[in-house]
Amino acid sequence: MRKLDGGYSSEVDAVEEKEWYRLLHQFDDANMYQTWAYGQVRNGRRNISHLLVKEQGRVIAIAQSRIVKAPLVGAGIAYVMWGPLWRPREARADAEVFRQVIRALRNEYVCRRGLLLRIYPILFDDDSPCFLSILAEEGFTRAGDEHGSRTIIMDLNRPLDELRQALRPHWQRELKVAEKQKLEIVEGSEDELFEIFIDMYREMVARKKFREPNDIDEFRTIQQRLPVESKMKIMLCRSSEGMCSGLICSVVGGTAIYLFGATSTTGMKSRGSYLLQWKLIEWLKCGRVARYDLNGINPETNPGTYKFKRDLGGDKGRDVRFLGRFESCESIVSVASVSVGERLKSIAGSMMKK
Questions:
Q1: pTM for this prediction
Q2: Mean pLDDT of 119-127
Q3: What's the number of CA atoms in the CB half-sphere (13 Å) around residue 100?
Q4: Nearest to 29 by CA among 73, 93, 74
Q5: What separation, in Å, do the N-terminal and C-terminal C-alpha atoms of the chain show?
Q6: Which of 35, 228, 266, 302 is most buried as measured by Cβ atoms within 10 A of its Cβ?
Q7: CA of 97: how far to CAs of 12, 20, 85, in Å?
Q8: pLDDT (tens digit per residue) in 330-352
């Protein structure tokens, strides 16, 4: 265990839900996966933990961990998804704060609780190389040989007409086709809209015969528990034949995240998905959101979606790769428990695919 540097202190599980959301919105790197609702729905209230790091009494970093323990032995894992949060809004981010918060996380969950700590920070390969050094110096190693997934980040600080001009020619043509259709946009955050979207999403999943990467019903429950200012944005596109496309986006911090998209069988010719994405960008611009994360690309396994997102991002879209997951542990029992649990989960997943 290493003490935090002078002037820094940490607190664990000393914050209530309402206060957590107030703190969450103070960080530019805040996101859906660090919301109280996400952790509670995914793991249950008893299995989430909240850590604060303070400098001279002022909160400068926070992290929500999801705790999973093996029965009886008490060993297990603490997982920080898309965290910790340490980049303040409207102020320069300090890498030293990142050091202090991952040290505090390690002190609590590795040293005090004997868990395997795994973090998935919002850091990219093209970020300063100092972060890899900090992670190593604070006792973290990359989780196996795993490297992070790729995504495309759009900079929304440019004028709207410049963003439109940056769209690749194919995307511009499809958007013009959609704008000539008699399409109606329905938007909001109500549960009724989520239900309509799920019906369309399930139809698309069945048509394309692919396995859902995320449990859409789980996200609906999360939406019901999120406070108004943190709820996901739902946008639906209706043609004369009915609902033709939809999307769900999360805006908690300075980066909007594209979570789900769907197109109905009858709506495939309307190009509604192009119109929705552009209307979403207009809405994000009005809210002064700085960036739009198109949330995952894989040219090999999903070339169609990759092309759609690449063309939307345009020549100035930032194609980035996350640094990946990092972990730290001092307990052989926790390492063994997590390894067995993940192996069983992988086997169960393989059996479900058959």
A1: 0.92
A2: 91
A3: 22
A4: 93
A5: 46
A6: 35
A7: 17, 19, 10
A8: 888 888 887 877 776 665 555 44
